[in-house]
Amino acid sequence: MHKKIEKHQFEYFTSTNLNDFSAEEQQLISETINKANSAYAPYSNFNVSSGILLDDNTILSATNVENASYPVGICAERNVLSYCMSNFPKHIIKTIAVYAEKKIEKLILPITPCGMCRQALLEVENRQEKPIKLIMIGHNNQFLVVEKCVHLLPFAFDGSVL
To answer: Number of folded domains in the chain?
Structure first.
């Protein structure tokens, strides 16, 4: 057996300084954090919000919406992506932000999108043929940033195999 060891690597950055972001991204971050209050999460008490910055600097946002029948719920990222693709189909998504908080305690570190949301982000990134910057926001300006959503899903499944 001849095996070849390979590596999958990508760059990301962390920050605790809001000034590391453009004025438009700072607005996106602020609106995404504030939107978490609108989440409907009575079962998990895990409020998630996601915001999108479009190529014309329009900001869209959405939250997670839970359901007593758990599979019926939707994550904030897929919620805002669906809205964007349905209502702004010709626009390019420059940046997406994600924030989460628990009602009973603060989450210090940023959360990352779940697997389904990573797949949805990849689909949109492939569709628009331009990378989407992803800003994951934690409490007290803890940021984790990737310049392309594809970095979150190595060996991704996409339409090229269909």
So the answer is: 1
Query: Known catalytic residue: 31?
Result: no
pTM recorded for the entire structure: 0.94
What's the CATH code of the domain at 142? 3.40.140.10
Q: What percent of the chain has pLDDT over 90?
A: 82
CA 152 to chain centre: 10
Q: In what order do the strands lie in the sheet with 142-146?
A: 12-15, 142-146, 133-138, 93-102, 46-54, 59-63
Q: Which one of the listed residues 11, 25, 66, 77 is annotated catalytic?
A: 77
- Would you say residue 147 lies in a domain? yes
